[in-house]
Design goal:
Elements (H helix, E strand, L loop, with lengths): L1 E6 L16 E5 L6 E6 L3 E5 L6 E7 L2 E8 L2 H11 L1
Antiparallel strand pairs: 1-6, 2-3, 4-5, 5-6
């Protein structure tokens, strides 16, 4: 399993713009980098990447985006097996 955590923090010297608590964050596939979409605070989603087929779970909590690769892309697994043959 592969987990990516991105911590989003505002600068201590500047005030956050009004409505920042409703900000949406881009989520990318950990396997191929494809943009999966934008998610707001409290999001928890499980899906299959439309580009590579990897099964992914992502969540946004406390201004952190956590992406968990549940099952790698079958395309990428096949390519790795070819390189070992």
């Amino acid at each position: 399993m592969f987990v990516t955590i991105i911590n989003i923090s505002k600068s201590a010297s500047k005030e956050a713009p009004e409505g920042i608590e409703h900000m949406k964050y881009y989520t990318f596939c950990s396997s191929c980098g494809h943009i999966l979409g934008r998610s707001g605070e409290g999001t928890a989603t499980e899906l299959k990447c439309p580009k590579c087929g990897a099964e992914i779970e992502y969540a946004v909590k406390d201004k952190k985006v956590t992406v968990t690769l549940l099952r790698p892309s079958s395309k990428q697994q096949a390519e790795r097996l070819k390189s070992y043959s």
